[in-house]
Amino acid sequence: MLVLSRKKGESIVIDDHIEITVLGVEGETVRIGISAPAEVDIFRKEVHLAIQEANKQSAASTKDHIEALIAQFQQSVKNEK
Amino acid sequence: MIIESASWGSIEVEDDQIFHFNRGIPGFEEEKEFAILPYEDSPFSMMQSLSEPSLSFLLADPFLFEPGYEFELPDHDTMELGIKEKVLVRCIVTLQASIEESSINLLAPIVMNPENVEAKQIVLQQSGYQTRHAIKELSAARTLFAKDGE
Asked: How many CB atoms lie within 10 A of CB A3?
């Protein structure tokens, strides 16, 4: 990992087209501004990890399981009618 | 074309049911193509990887379960997917023992352009939605699910 010291208002340029600026520091919180091309997706890391985790836990359920659940759903909708 | 699925065996899919995910989806970045196949008589669809037969997901129509569901599709996603008029939105379901106890990921919907079959799982910024909304707690759940004994 590259470690750099920056002061408020100073920036870092990554690969010529991504610029990260330290906007301010309050206690333990650093506010960061990011300028990047539109096709670069930027997420808070914990959000990105949560979505990876949710996807992994949602993958590859067995056919029998899914069919049983959908049958259950269809039955409950039918009952409602 | 015919595709292989660990759950469903060989299944025939139409070209317009195969969506191209330029970056895969989070956690499965190498999976670039999925067939998205509706379940008859249900608000659900299957999302089956073309390259990995054992990888499939259950999708749901979020607007059916949560009629107030809304988000603004960022301009760069609209451009990236080439969306002009038509757009389809589905959300991934995390299955539990019963459908009612299962959850739906409203934070990261699958957005599809049916006209050019480009698709992407987008992450909503500051929407208030989460990766796990219990289906039975969604606003339309009461009309979708009958209670026992009724």
From this structure: 4
Beta bridge partners of A12: A20
Whole-prediction pTM:
0.86
Interface residues of chain B, partner chain A, Cβ below 8 Å = 6-8, 23, 25-28, 39, 41-42, 44, 46, 54-58, 75-76, 79-80, 92-95, 98-99, 102, 105, 107-108, 121, 123, 131-132, 143-146, 150
Sheet (strand A18-26) strand order? A11-14, A18-26, A29-35
Residues of A in contact with B102 (CB under 8 A): 69
CB contact under 8 A, B7 and A63: yes
**Res. B127 pLDDT band, cuts 50 70 90:** confident
> How many angstroms separate the CA of residue A1 from the nearest CA in chain B?
23
What is the distance between the alpha carbons of residues B25 and B20, in angstroms, rounded to a whole number? 11
CA B61, CA B138: separation in Å to the nearest integer?
Answer: 12
Using one digit for the tens of pLDDT, what is the confidence trace for B66-99? Answer: 999 999 999 889 999 999 999 999 999 998 888 7
Collapsing DSSP to helix, strand or coil, B73 comes out as coil
Cα dihedral sign for B129, B133, B28, B85? negative
A41 and chain B in contact, CB less than 8 A: yes
Rounded distance, CA B54 to CA B7, Å?
7
